[in-house]
Structure formats: C-alpha cells, structure tokens
Specification:
Blueprint (H helix, E strand, L loop, with lengths): L1 E10 L2 E7 L1 H6 L5 E5 L7 E9 L4 E7 L3 H7 L6 E2 L1 E6 L10 E7 L3 H13 L3 E8 L8 H6 L3 E6 L10 H10 L6 E5 L2 H14 L3 E4 L15 E4 L2 E4 H4 L2 E3 L5 H8 L3 H10 L3
Parallel strand pairs: 8-9, 8-11, 9-10, 11-12
Antiparallel strand pairs: 1-2, 1-6, 2-5, 3-4, 3-7, 4-5, 12-15, 13-14
Length: 273
C-alpha cells in the first residue's frame, strides 16, 4: 500500500500527487515511469515519474482525468492509499553530452517534459523550454518549468496568455533565428510530437520523443506497447519510452492509440474500470 502524501489541483482536469514509495524513489530517474493499480478490481496504468525526493521517499505523479482509472485515482485524498505502485520502469532520459537542448511540452505532456528539463538543467545544459496549451486556464507547472530552464516560452492556441500559436511556431522561430541545439526533446499528444519531428528533420536537429502507447505489464512481455522505430519493432516499456522522433512510424502509432477508443468511451460513460 502506498500513501498519498500530497494532492494538488493544477487545473480542472490535471492533478498532482506525491506518493510515499521509498524503494521507487531510491532508484528513480527522469524519463522513467511507474505502473499503478488503485484497488483490487482496478486496471494497471502507466504514469511518468514527474519528480522524486529520495530523502522523503516520495514520488510525484501528474495525471489527467481522461479515463475510468484516472478518475478513480483522483477520488483519493491525502492519507488514502494506492494498492500497487511498481517502478521505476523504462529507460531514463539520456542526459550525457547534451550542451544545449530545447524541451517541448504539449498540454499534460509538460508533466513529462518537466523532469527531463530538470535533469538537463541540473547537468549544466542550456535549456530552452517551450510549452503549449489550448488556453491560459489550462496552463500547468509554469513556475516549475521556469525554474529549470534558461528561457521559458508558454504558447496558447487562442493567445489568451499573450503568446498565440503552437509550440512548433516558437521552435521554428528559434531555429530560423540561428539557435543551434544538440537536441530537441518533445513530449505531448502524438500529432504534436510528429509535427515537431517533421520540423526538426528539416533543420537536421536530433529529436527525441517520449511515447505513451497502450501499456499493460511494463516488462515487455505483453507486447501491447510496441512501436515501430526505424523499421524495427520496439517495446516502449523496456526499450523506451524515449525514441528517435525521426524514425517513428507515426501513422502506425496514431492507429494503435485509437485501437480501444470505443472501450475507453464506454468506461467514461458507465464508470467501468
């Protein structure tokens, strides 16, 4: 059993939780994830480790209430318990050798982009961070992202925060101004990561994306999270979740994410877990 130490509402659909999990915190690194189960009848879902505190033995998760399990998770309050909390899983973000990086996050994907930016920043890299949201009311982690970047650019689709446009608009502007990045790290909705990868390909900039396909066991045994990278089948849970964005079969990734759309809609409508 894993106790909820802190709960924080980031916006109407996104929640921050600190969970007491000392063994996970001891080994956790940026880019890795946990698989949790809220209760005995619940499903297993993966969530990225947004932060950790080895001294306190806590792990931070940030999730969007989009399905039955995340909605159930959100009913927990401080002092309540999560049944299973397995991790850390997956390969950590590769930090070494990166002197200047643009970290791009879209929506709740900023919860994954933030720990990557923090790891790069703490390693001494120059970090430019670009985050994108549909509107000002949905912006999350602005202070946290500003603390781990030299420059933070927050974009909104509707311009309600004064900076209208997509993350690709700002990234293209920086590249056209002559910014030279060792790496672009992008995480968010698949269409956004695909657009970033197509843009950076034109400029010859290495690009890494964090994939979040359907995942069940987190150990590479079920095959549910397979992704085609450079013509080879990879499992996001053990080979990733981070891959070369220029080698992803994006058409396949889009199809696989929509594979269980009907079941997910039924879960939301009828509260089935």
């Amino acid at each position: 059993m894993y106790r909820v130490l802190r709960k924080r509402v980031l916006n109407p659909s996104v929640t921050w939780m600190d969970v007491e999990a000392p063994l996970v915190a001891r080994k956790a690194k940026a880019g890795q994830f946990v698989i949790l189960r809220v209760n005995e009848t619940g499903e297993r879902i993966p969530l990225t480790i947004a932060d950790y505190d080895r001294e306190k033995g806590s792990v931070t998760i940030i999730f969007q209430k989009v399905g039955g399990t995340t909605r159930l998770l959100d009913t927990l309050e401080e002092g309540d318990y999560i049944l299973d909390f397995a991790g850390p899983l997956g390969r950590p973000t590769e930090i070494e050798g990166v002197g200047k990086v643009a970290v791009v996050g879209g929506g709740v994907g900023c919860a994954i982009a933030y720990p990557a930016a923090k790891a790069f920043y703490n390693s001494g890299a120059w970090v430019d961070m670009i985050s994108g949201f549909r509107s000002r009311d949905l912006i999350i982690l602005e202070d946290e992202m500003a603390a781990v970047s030299r420059r933070l650019f927050v974009m909104t689709d509707d311009g309600s925060n004064g900076s209208k446009g997509f993350v690709t608009d700002k990234l293209k502007e920086l590249l056209e101004q002559g910014e030279s990045y060792d790496l672009v790290f992008a995480v968010g909705p698949v269409p956004m990561m695909r657009a970033v990868s197509e843009l950076t390909r034109q400029y010859g900039v290495k690009t890494v994306v964090s994939m979040n396909p359907i995942m069940i066991d987190g150990t590479g045994m079920c095959g549910g999270c397979r992704v085609t990278v450079g013509g080879e089948v990879k499992f996001a849970c053990v080979d990733g979740p981070e891959f070369d964005g220029h080698k992803i079969d994006w058409d396949e990734a889009v199809k696989r994410l929509s594979q269980y759309r009907r079941e997910e809609q039924n879960c939301r409508l009828f509260g089935q877990i």
